[in-house]
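Researcher: Please predict.
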Amino acid sequence: MSPGLKLFEPPSQNLKRSPGRVTARPASGEDVEELARDWQNCEVLDTTTDRVVGRSTSRKRRGPSTADPNFSILLVCRANICRSPMAEFLARREAESLGLPVRISSAGTHAKADFPMHPFARQALASMQIEPDHFLSRPMTAALIERSNLILTMTDAQRSWVVSTFPQALQRTYLLTQFSRLIAAAPDQGAVSPTDWGPSLLARAAEGRSLAQPLVTGRDIEDPIGRRLRSFQNCAGTIEERVQSLFAGATITRG
């Protein structure tokens, strides 16, 4: 074990560093920023995989899903180390499988910049045959909002934060679970070109407003932070279901 290497311990508790070791304390479910700071100056050994993770020394963030995107989707959670990164890579896989020129990225309402994905989030994606390379967290900015055609949040509170902080985003910001419900309620898109897919998706959501009742329960995708790997895997599964509905019901035409 290299100097300064810390063990990542899987119990359902947040981690707090003390000199030379990692100790546990009760999890709050919201104390994401302190967890991110804990990772800032140390490497983390995930004992379930024997892989070392830690804050990246490279400040290069992952690129868009395809070249020359004409439509941009931004996935949002709190710290941009668990839910929204998983949603980003799951949505990117769907877009790439259809050859859609869509830029898919993520950010956090209260994120600190340049932190790696949570090890359990990485493992959850790995179990779904996704290797999330070159990921770094980032906070929400006006520039990100400006270039996003569709903004999808994990919770109602995050949507409220986005639209109150960036009022210009009101018409483009949805709760992920509700947006997927609107799309599922709308008729299939039929045949669309890759470049028309994004605008067609927004049109379907508008049509679905008159067909789908608002969700009363199960609206938020809960934060798995501080819990066991199984919670992250369950969260990833829920996100995958919601994300897949965005890409279902369309026939992509070529030529």
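Model: The mean pLDDT is 80.
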